[in-house]
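Handout for the seminar on molecular recognition.
Each group receives one record of this type.
Step one: identify the two inputs.
Step two: read the structure output and locate the region that could contact calcium ion.
Step three: write two sentences on what you found, then compare them with the reference statements printed after the record.
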Amino acid sequence: MAKRTAAPHKSWLPEANKATADFPLTHLPYGAFDQDGQQHLCVAIGTHLLDLYACAESGLLPSNLVEACQAPVLNPLMGLGHRSWTLLRETLTALLHADEKPDRRQAAEAALHSIAGSTLGRPVHIPNYTDFYASIYHATRVGQLFRPEQPLLPNYKHLPIGYHGRASSIIPSGIPFFRPTGQSRPFAVEDAPNFQPTKALDYELELALYVGEPSLLGTPIPVSRAGQHLFGVSLLNDWSARDIQSWEYQPLGPLLSKNFATSISPWVTPMAALEPFRAPAPPRPSTDPKPLPYLHSIADQQHGSLNVKLEVLISTATMRTNKLEAYLLSKSNTQDLYWTPAQLIAHHTSNGCNLQVGDVLATGTISGPTEASAGCLLELTRNGAQPILLPTAETRTFLADGDEIILRGSCEAPGHPRISLGECRAAVLPARPLQP
Ligand code: CA
């Protein structure tokens, strides 16, 4: 590797050095794009993507990584383990650095494509999806709506609550989905339940944690090692049909109210890029129980959380017709989650459940302490009781057909270039007519 003389974070691609860049040299999130009908892996740099397949073809990558970098998904690379992840990241950082040798730089330039002109795909094959409930603010406010006498159930502060989601209906950002039809509570107990398009379609702002290092069946992962199993993060929208959910969820939890679609953002930010944005776990009031030993590690408490600033925006069909900007619904931060990513992994595997390469563990709705920082409409509108007024004079309790929800995430810390997780967006299509 060439000795660096330029600034440590400076790329030969000037756009990547701008303070406003989403994808500076320190980020290099992984993605996948369509290249003549074949899916190639890539990393984002500035407003471009670097084709890893082409880089491997040109001899720019270490020989032991060629096969994984020419796969259509990241799973083979994830399966190679930490040392390979680090080697690839170091290689790509040097390749795109301002001090790179001219011949290698030229070869890399030939593998660049504009992101705007590319079709991004799904970079990870996701075998399993688990959804947690790690925001105590979300859990408390939702609980207040349905159980004002006991908003937070007695188990909440002892274990990360979660359920198994559905991996098959995780869809890439940008793909619209049909409003689901399903059963909801009858008006009177003696009536038959309704079977109709949901009238309470909601979004949930979440962070997706990708498992890179698998675990063996029967072998719990200690919380002190749990973070090392994570490969990276994306934004995730766990669409929810609240009327279907409230009718079906007892006693086993949500099923059809959640598994019709889950949107995920195209870029996977590696954990290595998030190191400068680590944060301490939120302090627990002295009245809260201490986590049990299998969920407690001093290092994890000190810097196991993440400082990712999040935003949710809505763009209605009327707003798009009138060329209005998307409207900000809320802001929150992953730092406010009650449980850290390592605690989610330690808990998930504490009974011996095995993690597979590419599994997604989602945090659950990320809400903050204030009402304006709520990560879903159920909280923001108090289950539809307080409609939101939009700049078009439209109101929303839940989502209307044509609404598009946009999740954004970014990280900032003194002395480090800002990075952006990009966007996760999808629009609601009208329900499909029922077949007789
Ligand atoms: Ca959720």
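Reference statements: The mean pLDDT is 96. The pocket of calcium ion is lined by residues 131, 204, 206, 238, 364-365 (CB under 6 Å).
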